[in-house]
Amino acid sequence: DVQLSESGGGLIQSGGSLRLSCTASGFTFSNKPMSWVRQAAGKGPEWVSTISGSGAGTYYADSVRGRFTISRDNSKNALYLQMNSLRAEDTAVYYCARDIAEGADNTGSYVFDRWGQGALVTVSS
Amino acid sequence: DIVMTQSPDSLAVSLGERATINCKSSQSVLHNFNNKNYLAWYQQKPGQPPKLLLYWASTRESGVPDRFSGSGSGTDFTLTISTLQAEDVAVYYCQQHYTAPRTFGQGTKVEIK
Fold first, then answer.
1. pLDDT digit string (tens) for A23-60?
2. Is the dihedral of CA A46, B92, B50, A32 positive or negative?
3. Cys staple from B3: which of A29, B20, B22, B26, with CB 3.0 to 4.6 Å?
């Protein structure tokens, strides 16, 4: 059974840093592009970042480029999001999400067929 | 960025009746090279993550009941729930997976009348 579980969320002051982790099981992790998608309260989801299965390709939304870094450790079936220079508008539930595409070098279809339960990040100003 | 606009924001439908949700993209999400519309639909229940229902506008995800169907092309799309069940109460989102940044609609809340 596919499972995704996020951790590392919390309350942080504006300008601070936080690292989210997502552990995966039930599928061949290295064969799947993975993404972070966030959702502010009462809003629709917002794509944040994607990483290819091998980790060679990374992609970011303009709103986080230069502040956030996505990475993965395929030996640990883990996905990460390092968030620096956090702002109040980064406050949201952050989900790790699996792409339906397959292949270590696939850059992703951006269709998300499995999601974690989410990690709440609250940035206080 | 492609803006996705859903209508209505909410709707109340009687059990067993049809529910229809519309989604309009600010530019076409139809890929000429494969003639596919890069449009997905998700269902989100309170306190849960989104769940994929459909992609390429009308391809149902494995395990999704066939009362959920998608239609449309170019910029105008529809999600139809043919006979509403109690467990279908949720917020539904459309998403374009055509071009960066992939964007979602604001959501449509479906309730029981």
1. 999 999 999 999 999 999 999 999 999 999 999 999 99
2. negative
3. B26
In chain B, whose CA is at the least distance from the CA of A4?
A: B49
- Tell me which chain A residues have a C-beta less than 8 angstroms from the C-beta of B107: 43-44
- Show which residues on chain A lie within 8 Å of chain B, measured between beta carbons: 43-47, 59, 61-62, 95, 97, 100, 109-113, 115-118
DSSP A20-52: EEEEEESS-GGGS-EEEEEE-TTS--EEEEEE-
- State pLDDT tens for residues B48-94: 999 999 999 999 999 999 999 999 999 999 999 999 999 999 999 99
- Write out chain A residues lying below 8 Å of B93, CB-based: 44-45
Buried b / exposed e over A108-119, threshold 16 CB at 10 Å, is bbbbbbbbbebb
Q: How far is CA A113 from the centre of its chain?
A: 14
Between CA A123 and CA B3 the distance in angstroms is 26
DSSP B6-59: EE-SEEEE-TTS-EEEEEEESS--EETTTTEE-EEEEEE-TTS--EEEEETTTE
Across the interface, do A45 and B104 touch by the CB < 8 Å criterion?
yes
Residues B26, A36: Cα–Cα separation, whole Å? 24
pLDDT of A107: 87
